[in-house]
Specification:
It is a single chain. This protein is of the alpha+beta class. It folds into three domains: 93 residues, no CATH class; 124 residues, Uridine Diphospho-n-acetylenolpyruvylglucosamine Reductase, domain 3 (2-Layer Sandwich), CATH 3.30.465.10; 262 residues, FAD-linked oxidases, C-terminal domain (Vanillyl-alcohol Oxidase, Chain A, domain 3, 3-Layer(aba) Sandwich), CATH 3.40.462. Helix content is 30%, strand content 20%. It has 19 helices and 17 strands. The strands form four sheets. The protein has an eight-stranded antiparallel sheet with strand order 13-10-12-11-15-16-14-17. A five-stranded antiparallel sheet has the order 3-4-8-6-7. The protein has a two-stranded parallel ribbon with strand order 1-2. A hairpin with a 4-residue loop joins strand 3 and strand 4. The chain is globular.
């Protein structure tokens, strides 16, 4: 067993599984808490140990980064790739270790092999283990990354290594697929790949009434209702701007290129020349400048929901500027009012390749609802936005996309296709959105059999707390039983997860039950 020390950044950086096992056994011996940081796209308290999340660097807590565990191996016969848990899906420009590059990312290397993973998720800065742990996904009812997960390798709270798949340890595989880091540390994941493809698509921003998708009604022969559009479009996502005076929708859609597309656009696959998607296609500005200007505006209005004189002044400024500012940036380039694009799969599918967390840092709450209730949800939101004005809409869009049903027990899409309602909050606002902004939507939509993205903001108390969530997951108790088996001393459980999942502490919150000297010796031997 290899000894490992903490680095100056406050993290342990294990280079192999032996060093992980050493830290796990030390945690059991000394009653420490263990958590792993990926790309830190989740709520901070969901990632780190309790003290670390509050800015403390306590020796009694173990926070890891797997940046030294990024190797990838290929099985050409099966067209499968196995990536270590610290490998990023794509380049992470905010990686504090500065080790993440395009060339060592999973998706780039898969593409170089002539393969593809057909659903990347909207964010590819994430690590492989972090992406799985929260059940993240892209916007497609045709493809799902969970369908392409062949095996998961993890080290549990006992220091035992597990190789989990549907063929072996089926229940634990279903539990580990979305586990919030509560079953163990994911050290590798095997994906089933498919042949490489290019994506072609277009994006159009219009007034809601002029959209080619019927957001709130039953649709017509030439204008599908939203549910039908999402179910029948291979890749799709929408940004709905509900603000008075704006009332626009941006519809992004794409599909794998066919031979006829190459003939029309590039001549042939061999002569393929990409036309990349632009995240901020504002006519007057470059994409980077658009983000900077947008960021400045959001900073000017960050006190929009504050009490007192400052809040009143900000709301007055917001009412004067909101519609013209959003109308400027929620626009589309091109003679036909449509942005057309075609590119390699892993460059076209994600949304974060050109987005700056520095200028536009956002927090989110994402509600996953059975897709059969799409029209009800949209009309409920429309009514709420109309009745509550800026207090509900602020200056944010509402993102709408879908997820194919999942086999993993704690996936918010377990055994059902879902529409995802993604709500924004500007991260520079001083208020806590979990108490000031998001609750109105949690209460509004809870009647629609709602589940929540585990890495984003979600409620921790009545009327939408752990007991409510428990009724939404058929295998909740099975997952908790496996959690208790694989982490009997609760070394992976923090106060955050105790509160949100109603996990009873063994003794005091944040601490494991003490072991006897004999038990400790036996465990470490």
């Amino acid at each position: 067993m290899r000894y490992i020390t903490r680095s100056s950044d406050g993290f342990y950086h294990p280079a192999n599984e032996d060093e992980i096992r050493y830290l796990i056994k030390r945690a059991n011996q000394d009653g420490l808490t263990v958590r792993v940081r990926g790309a830190a796209h989740s709520v901070g308290a969901a990632i780190y140990t309790d003290g670390f999340a509050k800015g403390k660097r306590d020796e009694k807590e173990i926070n890891m980064m797997l940046d030294k565990m990024i190797d990838i191996t290929f099985d050409d016969e099966k067209m499968q790739v196995t990536a270590q848990g610290g490998c990023h899906l794509g380049e992470d420009p905010a990686d504090p270790t500065k080790s993440s590059t395009v060339e060592n990312s999973l998706l780039y290397q898969v593409d170089q092999r002539g393969w593809a993973i057909p659903s990347t998720g909207g964010i590819i800065h994430q690590t492989v283990s972090g992406f799985l742990s929260t059940g993240s996904s892209g916007g497609s009812m045709t493809y799902s990354i969970s369908d392409h997960i062949v095996a998961i390798r993890l080290i549990d709270g006992n220091g035992k290594t597990h190789e989990l798949s549907e063929a072996s340890y089926r229940d634990k595989f279903y539990a580990a697929g979305v586990s919030m880091g509560l079953l163990g540390i994911i050290t590798a994941v095997t994906f089933q790949c498919m042949p490489k493809f290019h994506l072609i698509g277009h994006e159009e921003t219009t007034k809601i009434a002029d959209s080619k998708v019927d957001l709130f009604g039953t649709g017509t022969a030439d204008k599908p209702d939203l549910q039908s559009f999402l179910e029948n479009t291979e890749y799709a996502r929408l940004l709905w701007w509900p603000q008075k005076g704006v009332e626009k929708v941006t519809v992004w859609q794409g599909r794998p290129m066919q031979p006829r597309d190459y003939t029309a656009q590039t001549g042939s696959p061999e002569n393929f020349r990409p036309k990349p998607y632009e995240q901020f296609p504002v006519i007057l500005f470059s994409g980077q400048l658009s983000q900077i200007l947008s960021g400045i505006y959001y900073r000017l209005i960050k006190r929009w929901n504050s009490p007192g004189l400052l809040g009143k002044i900000t709301r007055g400024f917001l009412k004067l500027t909101l519609a013209p500012i959003i109308n400027l940036f929620a626009s589309t380039v091109g003679k036909e009012g449509t942005q057309k694009f075609w590119d390699t799969w892993w460059k076209a599918l994600p949304m974060d390749k050109s987005l700056s967390d520095k200028w536009l840092p956002f927090h989110f709450s994402e509600l996953w609802i059975p897709i059969s209730r799409t029209r009800e949800v949209m009309n409920k939101l429309k009514e709420h936005y109309g009745n509550n004005g800026v207090w509900a809409t602020a200056a944010y869009p509402c993102e709408i996309y879908v997820k194919k049903s999942s086999k993993f027990w704690m996936s918010p899409a377990y055994e059902r296709d879902v529409v995802k309602i993604n709500l924004f909050w500007f991260a520079k606002n001083k208020e806590n959105p979990a108490t000031t902004y998001f609750p109105q939507f949690w209460e509004l939509l809870r009647e629609f059999d709602v589940r929540f993205h585990w890495g984003k903001y979600f409620p921790d108390g009545p009327p939408v707390g752990p007991e409510f969530l428990r009724t939404r997951y058929p295998h909740w108790d099975d997952f908790m039983d496996i959690r208790a088996e694989m982490d009997p001393n609760q070394i992976f459980v923090t106060d955050y997860w105790r509160k949100h999942l109603a996990i009873e502490p063994q003794s005091k919150p944040g601490k494991t039950a003490p072991r006897t000297a004999t038990a400790r010796k036996s465990f470490l031997s």
